[in-house]
Amino acid sequence: MVVFSISQSISPQEVGDLREVVGWDRRDAIQATARYWATISGRDTETGALVAWLEILSDGVEHALTLPRLKHGGFLDKPADGMIVSIRAA
């Protein structure tokens, strides 16, 4: 099962690990100073590993955009209808 959380505190190292798994550069230093309006993180409940990450930028009034989403490759082949998902606010 994957649990999604809104604006949960995530270490730059965890995001770097996920970026590395999907084939991107880590960018730990940049991630450590980033200030997002909100984030959505997904964790595998069996391992506790960060398996999904979404960054949201907004003016806080009417405009928002998402930055590139990261999804761990091990979860790419799992159909959405077969995955149990839970969402909780931070």
Task: Give a summary of the structure in a few sentences.
This protein is of the alpha+beta class and 90 residues long. 18% of the residues lie in helices and 34% in strands. Strands 1, 2, 3, 4, 5 and 6 form a 6-stranded mixed β-sheet that branches.
List keywords for this structure.
90 residues; alpha+beta; Aminopeptidase; six-stranded mixed sheet; 2 helices; 18% helix; globular; disordered C terminus
Oligomer: single chain
| CATH homology superfamily | Gcn5-related N-acetyltransferase (GNAT)
Radius of gyration: 13 Å
- Output the helix-strand order: EHHEEEEE
- The CATH topology annotation reads as Aminopeptidase
Basic shape: globular
Number of strands: 6
Largest sheet: 6 strands, mixed
Q: How many structurally independent domains? A: 1
- Give the amount of beta strand, in percent: 25-35%
Helical stretch count?
2
Query: How confident overall, as mean pLDDT?
Result: 78
Work out the helicity level: 10-25%
Low-confidence parts, pLDDT < 50 over ≥5 residues? 76-90
Distance separating the two termini: 18 Å
Q: Which class best fits the helix and strand makeup?
A: alpha+beta
Question: In the CATH classification, which architecture applies?
Answer: 3-Layer(aba) Sandwich
Under the CATH scheme, which class?
A: Alpha Beta
